[in-house]
Q: What sequence folds into this?
């Protein structure tokens, strides 16, 4: 069976097709296609409260391309979801409806709690019974989850993200809210370890050059990368560090958000498991199609 996930974020749109291979009542995921398109819907929304005509037409073309891929791969089930940019846009729902009517592609505009739930569900599969603060920094929102003994204890979505910080000063208020919430809900837990998801923290890990079998970074590791990236101009980040243009300008704001949340919970290290919303969507699709069988990663 083939499954497809579309993650419509504030900075980029991600599309993945996965083949679920069945053998002896065990299912294995095999990635067949992955596309990331840097549309940056949040650039319009966080400034003007709506998606402008140019980005709307670009968005429609991207969705058309993904619908063609879904048809060409003969996908059995798919799920397309949009997060903070489209849910805050005055015309987000009308654009999603236009895509559905003209292309037959349904887009679910989900709230921050569902977004956090989908990501956290796949993250928790990789954790033990210790205490964790899961930090997911996106383009327009940041989701925090306090996890202990293999269970989610507390969860909160904040209007604070890497793209939003470029377009608005509103994140300064959100920073204090993150501090207050995190301190309140982690004060009773000892030795909290951060878990970071999102494209920017994965890029931070890549820049360290660390062994991919040990995906743990210390606060010092992150601070070193922050200083290193800061030493380059925006143009140098693209040419010398080989960062995509839509990564080069948001990586430093994102690093600051991760460090802020970690400091609030007194985390000394962060695990970077290299999973995200698209992985959560794949697991959701798996569960609704294969609820009685085991899965192998």
A:
């Amino acid at each position: 069976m083939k499954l497809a996930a579309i993650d419509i974020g504030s900075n980029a749109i991600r599309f993945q097709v996965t083949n679920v291979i069945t053998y002896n009542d065990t299912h294995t995921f095999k990635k067949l296609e992955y596309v990331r398109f840097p549309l940056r819907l949040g650039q319009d929304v966080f400034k003007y409260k709506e998606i402008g005509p140019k980005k709307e037409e670009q968005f429609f073309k991207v969705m058309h391309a993904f619908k063609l891929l879904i048809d060409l791969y003969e996908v059995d089930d798919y799920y397309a979801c949009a997060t903070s940019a489209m849910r805050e846009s005055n015309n987000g729902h009308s654009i999603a409806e236009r895509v559905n009517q003209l292309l037959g592609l349904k887009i679910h505009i989900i709230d921050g709690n569902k977004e956090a739930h989908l990501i956290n569900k796949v993250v928790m599969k990789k954790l033990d019974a210790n205490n964790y603060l899961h930090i997911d920094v996106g383009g327009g929102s940041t989701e925090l989850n306090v996890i202990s003994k293999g269970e989610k204890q507390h969860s909160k979505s904040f209007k604070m993200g890497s793209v939003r910080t470029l377009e608005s000063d509103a994140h300064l208020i959100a920073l204090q809210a993150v501090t207050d919430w995190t301190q309140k809900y982690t004060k009773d837990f000892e030795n909290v370890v951060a878990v970071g998801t999102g494209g920017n923290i994965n890029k931070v890990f890549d820049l360290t050059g660390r062994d991919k079998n040990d995906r743990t970074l210390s606060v010092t590791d992150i601070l070193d990368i922050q200083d290193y990236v800061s030493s380059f101009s925006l143009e140098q980040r693209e040419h010398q560090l080989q960062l995509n243009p839509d990564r080069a300008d948001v990586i430093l704001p994102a690093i600051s958000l991760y460090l802020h949340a970690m400091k609030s919970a007194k985390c000394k290290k962060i695990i970077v498991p290299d999973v995200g919303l698209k992985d959560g969507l794949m697991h959701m699709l798996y569960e609704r199609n294969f609820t009685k069988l085991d899965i192998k990663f």
Notes: The chain has a mean pLDDT of 92. DSSP finds 13 helices and twelve strands in the chain. The domain at 127-274 is CATH 3.30.420.150 (Nucleotidyltransferase; domain 5).
